[in-house]
Amino acid sequence: MPIKRILIDTDPGIDDALAILLALASPEISVEGLSVIHGNCSTEQAYINALSVLHLAHADNIPVARGFELPIAQASLLAPETHGNSGLGYAVLPQPPTRTQARHAQDFLIEQILSAPGEFTIVAIGPLTNLALAMRREPRIIPAIAEIVCMGAAIRHHGNTTPLAEFNVYVDPHAAHIVYHSGARITLVPLDVTYQCILTPADVKRLQKIDSPIPRFIADATRFYMEFHDEYQHIDGCVINDPLALALTFAPGLCDYEEHYVDVDIQGGVSMGKTFADFYKMSKKPANMRVALGVRARDFIELFLERMEKLSTSILA
Ligand code: RIB
Ligand code: CA
Asked: Whose Cα sits closest to atom 2 in ligand 1?
């Protein structure tokens, strides 16, 4: 299988950080840039966190572009209760090297995508503000994107931010609406599959056998994340949403998919950001994406752990 070129649009964020590490540990893909967005933390903090996680993994060569500070229409909503004020839980990372002035994510995404039409897979694991406004500014990127693998939405599953809405969509539902109806080739990775992917304390403990800053980071970041899941959702462990979406770029067989017409409520009120699939084709509208609705969760967790072990043995200081 040829190496897949990917750009990651991300709001790091603890599970985003694990997704970035998984990408760097996976020879099937080439990470050619990160664009950061508000969500789990501010865009400024997400930028610092992205640089720090890349530095942790000796990947300072990967460009990082800084995105929009606010959603298109909604007020800002961040998630310190879930990811901590730093966005990386209890983890404290070494200062990354300073970089020249970051490109804006809108320019970066447009230039990268148009430089190689049909080549790039966009892994969108945060609110979709950057991608939506890049599409609005330069619609030519839409047919030029090979695929958007999008972590977000809740289809049959309840919301995790309101009873009905998932975080990435709820933070910027108008951006999700633009991307979902853009005509781009989309694989949606909703809570329906990600909430089956629980990283347990025993999984994290297994990684500690390797004397490396990678497992120490994972332990410190996920300890905060697990405390959140225990207190708010009574889960023993933590849901690693974003790494699953990333894994599907090179291991699509981890999930089962159905083609559906999916929409998002932007009317406001109690169902703002609610996403739904037209399972009975009542709207008569054609499918606009394929949706992951089944997952081999422990196979994915095992793959994640094996890749983290491999990365950790290559980074011992
Ligand atoms: O709802 C889960 C998603 O929202 C994940 O991408 C998490 O990092 C947050 O961005
Ligand atoms: Ca995220």
From this structure: 167
> Does residue 192 line the site of ligand 1, with CB under 6 A?
no
DSSP 274: B
16 alpha carbon – ligand 2 mean position (Å)? 5
Neighbours of 235 (CB within 10 A): 15
- H or E element: which one contains 290? strand 289-295
- pTM of the predicted structure, to 2 decimals: 0.98
> Which residue minimizes the CA distance to atom 1 of ligand 1?
167
Mean pLDDT, each 10-residue run in order, the chain (317 residues): 94 98 98 98 98 98 98 97 97 94 94 98 98 98 98 98 98 98 98 98 98 98 98 96 98 98 97 98 98 98 98 91
- The rounded distance, in Å, linking the Cα atoms of 309 and 317 is 14
Tokens of 95: 């200062």
**Ligand 1 pocket mutation, candidates 11, 37, 157, 194, criterion most atoms within 8 A of CB:** 11
Residue whose tokens read 């790494």: 243
Nearest to 214 by CA among 12, 48, 55: 55
Domains (range + CATH), the chain = 4-314 (3.90.245.10)
How far, in Å, from the CA of 85 to the mean position of ligand 1? 15
Q: Do the Cβ atoms of 288 and 185 come closer than 8 Å? A: no
